[in-house]
Amino acid sequence: MPSEQVYSLLFQSRDGASSLYILFGGIVDPVSSRIDRFEVIAVGNSELINIPLSGTTFKDITNVCQKIKYEGKQLKNLTNKLQELFSNNGRSDDFMEQLIHYINKREDDKIKYLINQIQNQAMGNSKPDISLWYSLIDRDKIDEAGSGKSSFESLDSEESQEDSSPEEAPIIPIGVPTGIDASIPPTAARVQFKFILSPVSGIPVNQLKPGDQIVVQLTGSDPTTMGIIDSMKLKTEDGSIKPIPATVVATENKGVENETIVKIGNDVFGKIYEEENSIKVRLYTGEKPVSKSGGSNTSTASNASLEAGESSLLLTVLIALGVVGIGMIAIFVFLL
After folding, report:
1. Which of 10, 42, 206, 322 could, after both became Cys, cross-link 277 (CB 3.0–4.6 A)?
2. pLDDT value for 291
3. Average pLDDT for 199-219
4. Is 131 exposed, middle or buried, given 0-12, 13-18 or 19+ CB atoms closer than 10 A?
5. What's the alpha-carbon Rg for the chain, to the nearest Å?
């Protein structure tokens, strides 16, 4: 049975040398020895997670993480890896026994050591600066937000607002989209996708520009993306998704980080984040993209096999006729 009081465990990890910054918020149940729920995000810009942990709630951390993910500013691969690692360790008896023991004893250095062990599995050996905050709270207050801190507010500006009315909305607002997100109409369907790559003849992702036509493939299991896949009849009999053409609407390059927004059909848009400039995206040339099922290759192979079979049969017939002809000539010479 879940305990009535749980720990709210929050931390920030800052590694300036590699420009990797992590924000984590979790609910630790000391009775069941499990991490009930958590949110984690990895970014390449420290300002995105610049919030004081003292007085911040798990709900506040969740709001910040969701905002960053919505805007596509997270390091997606690293975030996914951290989610997997914390999920696995959150169910590990050995890890949780140590974590809860150190929290109860308030041994912060040992808690940071455990955290860093997980991080090192995701991003290699590093010695980040880890800030830690944890407190015992009532379970029914998990989803309560704190003072409504924004990830873009500094500590000074927050302190100047301490006397503001407590009735102000505590949820961090998403607000009006800015930057390249502003190119997506508010009423548009937003889908998930990936680039179809072409290492030889493709265009580098950081050289894409508005108006370029490329080949993409819808991915993900969210209702919007699945609905578009069904409506466009993109799923093949073997379950793979057919690649389709898309038009680049907006791009933004920040060193090695690239954000691209594409338009797929009418009022269907997608945004993708890539951490490498070296990948090359396949350009759409007007030809029908070949799906992963390899149907075209199979057809070509079948035709080649048929032609080879016909040639073999013809050769066999010619040899047989030649043998018959030689036999008839031999008989004729013998009779003479």
Report:
1. 206
2. 47
3. 93
4. middle
5. 30
